[in-house]
């Protein structure tokens, strides 16, 4: 049988670790690029854009629509990358803390 108090203590410990790790995610960054590197977007672990770099050759009125598309593509790639990093960080933070309960996948919580 399960030791309910032990499980509850593990849950509280995991919650504290998760909260601590979430605060640290602001320092985690990921970059996405498009247009063969002509547009680069950097996001942090709080899913905020922290930097955008655009090659000067793209800054012309006639390239406005293409530039918008490249920024969107680079941003989406950066968010996909940071989501993977966040999940890995959170998994490491809680690894070994929770009992292995069949059917209970905590990996999707993040």
TrEMBL record:
Subcellular location(s) per record: Cytoplasm, Nucleoid
UniProt cross-references to InterPro entries, sorted A to Z: YbaB-like_sf, YbaB/EbfC
Keywords, comma-separated and alphabetical: Coiled coil, Cytoplasm, DNA-binding
Coiled-coil positions: 4-31
Major site of localization recorded for this protein: cytoplasm
SUBUNIT field: Homodimer.
Similarity-based family: Belongs to the YbaB/EbfC family.
Chain's role: Binds to DNA and alters its conformation. May be involved in regulation of gene expression, nucleoid organization and DNA protection.
Protein name (record): Nucleoid-associated protein IFO69_14665
Species in which this protein is naturally found: Echinicola arenosa
């Amino acid at each position: 049988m399960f030791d309910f108090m032990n499980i509850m203590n593990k849950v509280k410990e995991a919650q504290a670790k998760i909260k601590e790790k979430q605060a640290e995610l602001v320092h985690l960054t990921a970059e996405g690029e498009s247009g063969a590197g002509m547009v680069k977007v950097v996001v942090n672990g709080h899913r905020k854009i922290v930097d955008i770099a655009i090659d000067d050759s793209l800054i012309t009125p006639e390239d406005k629509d293409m530039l918008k598309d490249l920024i969107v593509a680079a941003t989406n790639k950066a968010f996909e990358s940071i989501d993977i990093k966040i999940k890995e960080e959170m998994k490491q933070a809680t690894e070994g803390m929770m009992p292995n309960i069949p059917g209970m996948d905590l990996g999707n919580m993040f």
